[in-house]
Amino acid sequence: RNLAFIRENLEAMKGRKVGPWLSLDVEGMKGKFLRLPEREELALPVNEQLVVEFYSR
């Protein structure tokens, strides 16, 4: 809790939204993983078929 880079990153998170599957308490320096995210909630587009094809070689 005394590390400067952790405090800086937490300050940078103020005002930013986290996914609905996460809980963030900047003041208390706490975060919580609430549940697995739904596919629709992910910001990055993922083509699962391409992943399967890549790893099935």
Word description of this protein:
The protein is of the alpha+beta class. The chain has one domain: Structural Genomics Hypothetical 15.5 Kd Protein In mrcA-pckA Intergenic Region, Chain A (Roll), CATH 3.10.290. The chain is built from 2 helices and 2 strands. Strands 1-2 form a two-stranded antiparallel sheet. The radius of gyration is 16 Å and the shape is elongated. The termini are far apart. Keywords: Ribonucleoprotein, Ribosomal protein. This is 30S ribosomal protein S4.
Short structural description:
This protein is an alpha+beta fold. 32% of the residues lie in helices and 14% in strands. It has helices spanning 4-13, 48-55, and strands at 22-25, 30-33.
Strand-and-helix sequence, N→C? HEEH
Strand order of the largest sheet: 1-2
What's the architecture, going by CATH? Roll
Number of domains: 1
Amino- and carboxy-terminal Cα gap: 45 Å
Beta-strand segment tally: 2
Unreliable stretches (pLDDT < 50, length at least 5) are: none
Which fold name corresponds to the CATH topology?
Structural Genomics Hypothetical 15.5 Kd Protein In mrcA-pckA Intergenic Region, Chain A
**How large is the radius of gyration?**
16 Å
Identify the overall geometry.
Answer: elongated
> From the helix content, strand content and strand pairing, which structural class follows?
alpha+beta
Protein name: 30S ribosomal protein S4
Keywords: Ribonucleoprotein, Ribosomal protein
